[in-house]
Design brief:
Elements (H helix, E strand, L loop, with lengths): L2 H13 L6 E10 L1 H7 L1 H22 L2 E7 L2 E6 L2 H13 L1 H8 L8 E11 L1
Helix pairs in contact: 2-3
């Protein structure tokens, strides 16, 4: 790239307005998903739907999060605040023993979300 082309590119970028915002990202993944799907695919998928509807979605909304993407057995959630991200992850994590005790039998296994904040970036 020539110096002239580089300067033209810099001028174009200077004219464009870039909007940035701070976002905290939470990733949640299902522990032992492959094993659970192998043992009982339809039951596992149904339990995941229930977990998401009754636990994860309300906690995301309660902490002003936005579901960005579902990826197989995982979720990416965006929050405007690191504090909200950590609170949501902590509450989901705190519910794991109750979920396992109430819904799971030792033979079936219960999908459990492992939620953790992964990044704080300016986009």
């Amino acid at each position: 790239m020539t110096l002239r082309a580089l300067r033209g590119w810099e001028r174009r970028l200077a004219r464009e307005r870039v909007e940035r915002r701070l976002a905290a990202i939470l990733a949640a993944d299902v522990a032992a998903y492959s094993r659970l799907i192998g043992a009982d695919e339809s039951g596992t998928l149904e339990r995941l739907k229930v977990l998401r509807r009754e636990l994860f979605d309300p906690k995301i909304a309660e902490h002003r999060g936005r579901l960005v993407k579902t990826i197989g057995d995982g979720l990416l959630v965006e929050f405007g605040s690191v504090v909200d991200t950590l609170r949501c992850a902590a509450l989901v994590g705190a519910n794991q023993p109750a979920i396992r005790r109430d819904i799971c039998s030792e033979n079936s296994g219960q999908p459990a979300f492992d939620a953790f904040p992964i990044a704080k970036r300016r986009f």
